Amino acid sequence: MDQEKTTTENQNLGTADLKRVLGFGDLMSMACGQIIGAGIMALVGVGIAYTGRSVNLAFMIAALLTIMMAIPMVFIGGTLRLRGGNYTILASLMGKIWAGAYIPIYVLGNISISIYSISFATYFIGLTGLAIDPILVASVCMTTFYILNIFGIQGAAFLQNAMVVILAAALVAFMAFGVGKVNWNGAFGGDANWMTGGLNGLFMASVTLTYATGGATVILNFGAEAKNPTKDVPIIIIVSTLAIAAVYAVMSTVAAGVLPVSEVAGKSLLLVAKEIFPAGVYEFFIIGGAMFALTTTLNATLGHVTKPILQACMDGWIPKKFGYIHHKYKTPVVLLTLFYVVGMVPILFNISLSQITALVQILSKFFTAMLAISIINLPKAVPELWAKARVHCSTGMLWFVALLGAGSQLFQFIVLASNQPAYIWIGNLCMVSASFVYAYLMNKAGKVHMEVSYEAA
User: Fold this and answer.
1) 248 within 8 A of 40, measured Cβ to Cβ
2) 444: buried, middle or exposed (CB in 10 Å: 19+, 13-18, 0-12)?
3) 160-169 average pLDDT score
4) Which end of the chain is more exposed for a tag (fewer CB within 10 A), N or C?
5) Does some domain include residue 10?
6) 3-state secondary structure of 189
7) Per the structure, how many domains does the chain have?
8) Is position 9 within any domain?
9) What is the C-alpha separation between 256 and 219, in angstroms, rounded?
10) What is the distance of C-alpha 441 from the center of its chain?
């Protein structure tokens, strides 16, 4: 492993200078807010279009695939405080070139930030009935939470906690009002509307919905701002993922079982919500459920998304001035602006949700597979910290967990690639190849001097 200790001229420029203010409750609300978002509010209709009423089964398969990948992250999160999130994992356990190649893919992959604002606009216009341009609504939404995060993680976390409480109440209301109106005949099979796309449709729905059940592992990116990450992160990843997956299974049963499948396929939850809720409760669900689900995810994403690239700035992959941290608010304002622009591009150019999802998911599977594989290097890379890790196992079990996580990503990649036009996955492979060329050239130019960006906690 090639890592070199370095210092910086600007002591305000670095992940080590971020405020460590996030406790267990803050991290749990960030994880839940990240999971509950565009997935259930925008993609459940996509899942129904793929597989009909078996979307509830698809959610369970999606949760299994998510947990398979989450377990390797539990081992890493229970061993190290990661100041640069996934970037630090690759840098520490896979080496310099892998870390460098991850950077352009990570930046491009976060074009998915736009999904939350685009979906928010759909619900806002549906609720108000205003004849307003959805691009304008989505842009205002994105800009509002960008500004909020400029003023620091503590304020964003406080708002997140409040919104997640209201969001939970709205989801409970959807299940409580909806289960009594479900047509239970065929809800679990034996119906023409069950697995409408066959096995391929079920798998495609499951892989697509991993975007809904995934998200908890992003709290690894809050390692520099967490009070006790090695204790809190492993618990939060597993508990939040399983709990919300169970909620999703019930919600999707309602979403696909109240109205005919043909009416809800490819649609948001607006139609079903109008059917099951009385006046007043419907408005509460749209605001406190749909809109808060999307904005909590957007808020959590903007809170964590800059941390890997901030560390990359420290290491020389990107000019250090881009990693400038505001003296008062301790936020990486330049990088936050970069991701704001990345998220605004699909909004302004009206790129569809399905196109964004396909691009992001295929791009990410290769590197997430390598993140899983990387845990086999924990005992060798950080022997002292591994010996004291909160989550520990034998070498053989470590290999099993690594292969399990990588296998789940490989399966998803195959399903996604086989259901996309050739130009989509060929383009993705070209981008991955280009990212390694970028890493090689930057390293060869001698501009990269990597510091150790993990700590014991």
Assistant:
1) yes
2) exposed
3) 82
4) N
5) no
6) coil
7) 1
8) no
9) 31
10) 30
Range 153-159 contact pairs with CB under 8 angstroms and sequence separation of 24 or more: 153/18, 153/19, 153/21, 153/22, 153/225, 153/303, 153/330, 153/331, 154/19, 154/21, 156/299, 156/302, 156/303, 157/21, 157/22, 157/26, 157/29, 157/30, 157/303, 159/299
Let me know if 22 is exposed, middle or buried by CB neighbors in 10 A (0-12, 13-18, 19+): buried
Instruction: Provide the angle, in degrees to the nearest 10, between the axes of the packed helices 198-213 and 55-77.
Output: 40
Model confidence at 155, in pLDDT bands (50, 70, 90)?
low
Which residue segment(s) compose the domain that 420 sits in?
15-447
pLDDT in tens, 337-374: 999 999 998 899 887 766 666 666 677 788 889 999 99
Does residue 454 lie in a domain region?
A: no
Domain annotation covers residue 52: yes
Q: Cβ distance 300 to 339 under 8 Å?
A: no
d(CA 181, CA 256): 11
What does the angle CA 383 – CA 384 – CA 386 come to, to the nearest 5 degrees? 65
Q: Specify the pairing of strand 81-82 against strand 454-455.
A: antiparallel
pLDDT tens digits, one per residue of 1-44 = 444 444 344 444 566 667 777 888 888 887 887 787 666 777 88
CA distance 356 to 353: 5
d(CA 49, CA 68): 26
CATH number at residue 412: 1.20.1740.10
List 81's β-bridge partners, or say none. 455
Q: What is the DSSP letter of 22?
A: B
Count of Cβ atoms closer than 10 Å to residue 288 Cβ? 19
CB 56, CB 195: distance < 8 Å: no
Q: How far apart are CA 425 and CA 434, in angstroms?
A: 14
Rounded Cα gap, residues 36 and 288, in angstroms? 12
In DSSP terms, which residues pair with 454 in a beta bridge?
A: 82
Q: Is there a contact between 127 and 292 (Cβ–Cβ < 8 Å)?
A: no
Q: Please give the model's pTM, rounded to 2 decimal places.
A: 0.78
Residues 6+ apart with CB under 8 A from 302: 113, 145, 146, 148, 149, 156, 336, 339, 340
**Residues 89, 374 contacting (CB under 8 angstroms):** yes
Q: pLDDT tens-digit profile of 172-229? A: 999 999 999 999 888 788 788 999 999 999 999 999 898 888 878 888 877 778 888 8
DSSP 277: P
